[in-house]
Amino acid sequence: MTEEFISYLWTHQYFSKDQLCTSDGKPLRILFPGIRNHHQGPDFLHARLILDQMEWFGNIEIHIRASDWEKHHRGDERYNSTILHVVWEENQIIQRADESVLPCLSLRSRTDSALLEQCQQLRVSPEIPACRPHWPGVESIYWSQMMERCAVERLEQKSQQIQSKLQEHASWDELLWHLVARAIMRQVNALPMEQLLHSLPYKLLYKYRHRTSQLEALLLGHAGLLAAPVHSAYACFLAKEYEYLSALHQLPAAMRQSQWNFLRTRPSNFPSLRLVQLARILPTLEDVRSVLEDNQRLETIGTLLAPQASSINMDPYHFLGLEKCSLQIGQDTLHTLYINALVPWLVARSQFLNTPSLADQALDLLSQLPPESNKITRSYASPYIPITNALDTQGIIWLHNQYCQGKKCLSCRIGNKILNGKMATPV
Questions:
Q1: Domain boundaries, the chain
Q2: How far apart are CA 304 and CA 16, in angstroms?
Q3: Tens-place pLDDT, residues 29-54
């Protein structure tokens, strides 16, 4: 038995209310179970009860055994406003700090055995997600609701992380640059990209944003990708340019090429190519920001971030191993930038400005993108789950990581539906 399960029973009132009374026989009627409190203090706040023909307003505390109160709250005056102690087993009469007796409701004899058994089966199941065998019995509307809820939770978490970095970065434009740069490198080179961003000031890059060669020299040179001796005129030019700019702006020591991951990486994802592409993205970001905040179409943003570059001569970049590559940013990469950079930035901006319309725009952007395909999303591919866009897959990723892996079925809309359907008798 867990306090989470008892809280689940209390939240949804999934227990028998036939002749409901406290352990000392006083009749009880629940008008409002209260609001779940995830911070310090009682487990449920602002509950309303009629106890022994008198209406009470206050808080609810949850424990497995009544005696747990003594372990956690003995003498704590914050719990004097508790009006009911909800437990699985009452093994002790409890007094508040003011020595008044705390009314107690035991749920053990009032809980449906089928519900308890199903919950235990989900908890001990080795499969993730544990509810997979029950998917055929869950209507698609429950999946849609849970995926949207999870997508919003995921975006809120990203938004908090972004806003926490505002003190580190001078502007929202710099934040956007950092998000785009990390996203385009993907996970395999996220760590060295983070180091490069930390040691190469945004203000310096912004100064050279319209001078592509200097920008390439700064990015490639500081990344340590110009250090090896090469027989290329353009490579020599970039190396000399970086040497000059590094001395001029007193940059710290450059990174080493060995810090970047090339092994088992396709040339189209080489960090060298991504840095060259970033040199062309940086000048567009101010326009991208304006378009984002003006709620313009995806195509407009895509044209700014990924202008037609397929005709650019790649010969000067052969020294980087990019002979068979194009500077054109592909659709998959563009979608990655939307999902992991532009949309989270827009949600953070919305919360910072208290402008819900921007968050709505962000969700709309995600709903226009195709669903992602990765190890997690593929494991949830099923005719029973209506995954149709990137908003859904972002929800699936959060659902898997935050709910399914931790077996938090009691907090999940899908788990609730399955458990509710297993109760033998109505409550």
A1: 3-111, 165-368
A2: 61
A3: 999 999 999 888 899 999 999 999 99
